[in-house]
Amino acid sequence: MEQFTEFLDKYFIYIWLVLAVSMVSIFFIRGKAAIKMFENLDLSNVAYSEKSASGYSTKSFGSKFGGASKVLHIIITDKELVLKTYLFLAFIAKKNDLLHIIPLTTLTNTELKDGRIFSKLHVRFTGIKGEEKEVVLMSKRNLEIKAILDKYV
Question: What topology does CATH give the domain 37-150?
Answer without folding.
Answer: PH-domain like (2.30.29)
